[in-house]
Design a protein that fits this description.
This protein has 492 residues and is mainly alpha-helical. Helix content is 72%, strand content 0%. α5 (105-115) packs across α6. The protein is globular. It starts with 6 loop residues before the first helix and ends with a helix.
């Protein structure tokens, strides 16, 4: 007789053993719901701002010495409508839930916020460190820190000019039309993510789309289709190597995967899926692209700010390589030291620099750090689900669960399941299923893949009242289905 408890029994036992875990999951689900409602708050903020502007013109509300005036309610609604701030808002509520929960309290709350490790926080509370001993920040925060730094560097003028120049020259080989530029960015940039990391590829692709595509004012349907396609392509495009995509890095060492293994088993399928999905959307919107081509006269160019010397670009590339190496080596302090060197260099070479972008990267890092806090409390239900699924079920389960959690968290939890780490053909099939499912679902929501918030932060200005999570999800489904077919139906 099988003594293994049912899934419901195991989840019930975990909830009874620590009733706070279901509460934490409830807070997390509310945060996810909030992301879908963010455009509603953004619209309300714009309405209040417009109303307040009319009152200012009529002289019915006070203004400051500099002539400025704002509606505080509009500012609150703006904050609630900022997708990158949503999980941070609910992280504060999670913190106070810890503080107020019987048996947790302030010490547990601060320990968890600093470590993002539930078990370690409990151990620190049970046996507090000695006087003067500091609790080191969790290495789980290294990825948000990395995304912040790589976004700052990748959005600099020398890096952007180099990447856009290469992609534009490639696009000109296909005629240089808006369609060819759009297609090149959405196919080549995601594949570059396997070398320069997904966040850097996302930043460069989003900046190029913003400067060269969205300036032509495409329809809302094409804007959402482009964003959904970008998210899916970036998610699967990082699978050509074993060191660039966070969900791959989480399991590559444990399961002994190398770059040749990734390229043969995942990369080739990802390349095909990217090309097919991009071609599919190009065909669907072929008439609109024809209209955009007539509208783009003269055609847009990204190299209008003057040439950047090769040695300046070289220093920026060195800073990018240093950042990636420090992430791989888990050296957070040295990673930040590299950022300081980069910032000092931009000050010393202002004639070849654009203003350093910090607001967007900071918001994205805040988003990801908050997601780390919420995700660290979801293993009690994700782990048991993953351990009970067969190959097809595991692929589907990983794809669905990824939409509600960062795909790197899904693969990390899978790497902790003993049955998935065994040296057997069955275990290898399950390993393939969980990673393929995790990267396939990485474009369904903004929280599904770490680089997604970076892309949304850059492109959000082109979406009235912000990006709708529901519409993004719908337009991400077709490329997700294409990726599913490529991973499941093609031989391994």
């Amino acid at each position: 007789m099988d003594a293994t408890p049912t899934l419901w029994a195991e989840l019930t036992a975990a909830a009874k053993a620590d009733p706070f875990l279901p509460v934490a999951t409830g807070i997390f689900l509310l945060a996810i719901l909030h992301t879908f409602l963010a455009p509603v708050f953004a619209r309300k903020a714009h309405e209040l701002e417009a109303r307040h502007h009319e009152l200012v013109k009529a002289g019915k509300v006070p203004v400051g010495p500099d002539g400025r005036s704002a509606d505080f309610r509009a500012a609150v609604y703006h904050f609630l409508g900022e997708v990158e701030a949503v999980f941070g808002i609910w992280a504060f509520l999670l913190f106070y839930a810890f503080v107020l929960w019987p048996g947790k309290g302030w010490a547990f709350a601060t320990a968890y916020m600093e470590t993002a490790d539930y078990a370690r926080a409990a151990a620190l509370v049970a046996e507090p460190p000695g006087p003067g001993t500091r609790i080191l920040a969790s290495p789980k925060y290294l990825e948000p820190l990395f995304v912040f730094v790589i976004m700052v560097i990748a959005s600099s003028r020398p890096i952007f000019a180099t990447a856009s120049g290469l992609l534009n020259r490639l696009a000109r080989l296909f005629g240089g039309s808006p369609l060819s530029r759009w297609a090149v960015v959405l196919t080549v940039a995601p594949l570059l993510g396997s070398l320069i990391t997904e966040p850097a590829a996302m930043t460069i692709a989003a900046l190029m789309l913003s400067a060269q595509f969205h300036e032509l004012k495409p329809s809302a349907r094409l804007r959402y289709a482009t964003l959904g396609l970008l998210f899916v392509n970036i998610s699967i495009g990082g699978t050509l190597t074993h060191f660039a995509a966070p969900p791959v890095v989480m399991v590559a060492g444990t399961w002994g995967w190398t770059t040749p293994h990734m390229f043969l088993h995942f990369g080739l399928k990802a390349v095909l899926a990217i090309v097919v999905s991009t071609a599919l959307y190009a065909w669907v919107f072929r008439r609109e692209f024809g209209e955009l081509a007539r509208r783009a006269d003269p055609p847009l160019h990204a190299e209008s700010e003057g040439r950047v010397p090769a040695w300046v670009t070289g220093v920026h590339l060195v800073c990018m390589v240093w950042t990636v190496l420090m992430l791989v080596g888990h050296h957070g302090a040295l990673l930040m030291a590299g950022l300081l060197v980069f910032l000092a260099f931009t000050v010393a070479t202002p004639q070849w620099q654009s203003p350093v972008q910090l607001r967007g990267p900071l918001l994205v890092a805040f988003f990801l750090a908050s997601l780390v806090l919420h995700g660290g409390l979801q293993g009690w239900w994700i782990g048991p689900i993953l351990s009970r699924l067969g190959e097809l079920e595991l692929f589907a389960g990983a794809t669905v669960l990824t939409a509600f959690n960062d795909n790197a968290a899904i693969t990390f939890l899978a790497s902790q399941v003993p049955a998935l780490s065994a040296a057997t053909d069955e275990a290898r099939a399950l390993q393939f299923a969980v990673l393929a499912g995790a990267v396939t679902g990485g474009g369904l929501t903004v929280i599904a893949n770490a680089p997604n918030p970076a892309g949304q932060s850059i492109l959000a200005k082109h979406f009235e009242h912000g990006v709708s999570a529901g519409r993004l999800f719908l337009w991400a489904i077709p490329p997700t289905l294409v990726a599913t077919a490529c991973f499941l139906l093609l031989p391994r």
